[in-house]
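Structure in, sequence out. Go:
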């Protein structure tokens, strides 16, 4: 089974206050033990750096022991050490054209344009959903589930499934799919 892990699931592993922390931690443990194959976008690296940097104040209770960039770097290293998690690249360039102009964009962005226009999700969400679709092509194996904690994505699961051809589930729902 191949799953796509949204950034919020990967970060939830380290956030005991998150409602599905235990389920996310369990899901990622299954990935690290090789019981489950998982992918995410290279954009996850950027999101982890930005999210943990914004949350710096939560970690700054240690009398200045760590700088903002050190906190972000520590989380990036943790993510990169996640066993059996593959990162989907942006891909080669494609041309997006209108009557007056042609613009070259990464393949991921071209697909995200379609995902966003057909589902109404936010920009980064469209990029993650497009990554899941591209992962199916790269691995010649369908992504069985797009796993997220994002309420907006979960709410739009029917439209999204039609576009990326994978069901959208939460870690708690995924736990039931064992």
């Amino acid at each position: 089974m191949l799953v796509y892990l949204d950034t919020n699931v990967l970060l939830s592993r380290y956030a005991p206050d998150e409602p599905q922390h235990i389920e996310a931690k369990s899901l990622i443990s299954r990935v690290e033990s090789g019981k489950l194959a998982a992918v995410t976008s290279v954009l996850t690296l950027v999101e982890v750096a930005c999210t943990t940097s914004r949350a710096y104040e939560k970690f700054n209770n240690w009398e200045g022991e760590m700088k903002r960039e050190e906190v972000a770097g520590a989380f990036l290293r943790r993510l990169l050490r996640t066993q059996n998690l593959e990162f989907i690249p942006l891909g080669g360039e494609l041309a997006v054209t209108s009557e007056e102009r042609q613009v070259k964009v990464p393949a991921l962005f071209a697909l995200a344009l379609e995902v966003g226009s057909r589902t109404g999700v936010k920009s980064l969400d469209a990029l993650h959903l497009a990554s899941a679709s591209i992962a199916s092509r790269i691995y010649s194996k369908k992504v069985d589930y797009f796993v997220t904690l994002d309420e907006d994505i979960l709410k739009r699961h029917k439209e999204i499934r039609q576009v990326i051809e994978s069901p959208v589930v939460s870690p708690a729902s995924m736990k039931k799919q064992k």
